[in-house]
Amino acid sequence: MSDTPGIVVMGASGRMGQMLVREVQAHPGMRLAGAVERPGHDWIGKDIGTAMNGPAAGLRVTDDPLEAMAGAQGVIDFTTPQVTVALSTLSAQARAVHIIGTTGLTDEDIAKLDAAARHAVIVRAGNMSLGVNLLTQLTKQVAAALDADFDIEVVEAHHRHKVDAPSGTALMLGEAAAAGRGLDFKQSYVAARDGITGARAPGSIGFSAIRGGDIVGEHDVIFAGAGERIVLRHVASDRALFARGALKAALWGQDKMPGHYSMLDVLGL
Which residues are designated catalytic? Predict the structure, then answer.
């Protein structure tokens, strides 16, 4: 068996799943050990390569995560909260590094991930890109440097198929801004406004979500003061950058102690 880490891709038929499969196959430091889809999916039993309209890869898609993780060292998971929570237990049992790009997780979900992380490495991030994680750090620093006279708004845009809003990245940026200001994020959070809302509450962090077309991902953090605005912005034009970040995290986690990590840990930020 190869000494390179074996990686399992969950949700292999999705846009991100197929991107991850291609990136793993092309990476010299890892191998594709498994491709998983939900029970009943028409890719089950097919070669992952031919299912993706390419050459045969010698690996069949399965609906059994345990089967896929046999002999694997990492799992990359951009699926749904329910699947991610269930998979965290299986990954911990297999002592496989669990890379989580799933968004929409509740506090209860995260508590279950924390429990699994006592036995295995979990790296979870609302966004796996270097640029976004740098933006997160900048947001925290700017929020700390500016006083409360500067209002904070987060505006994000994604493709028409995205199902959650605000995006996980937008929430991550809002949490960074709240941390910089020393605020309780849950108390500061204001979702999209509608109707007669009254004046903006001091210390609030507002969110706006745009959905349309094939927008990969755009995030603005606006610090609006009297007579001036500071806008921090990140624009993603290729979702492969998220896949490459996930692969970097999977390799980084191979020699780490069990724990619940973030991309800031992976990137040394």
Answer: 158, 162
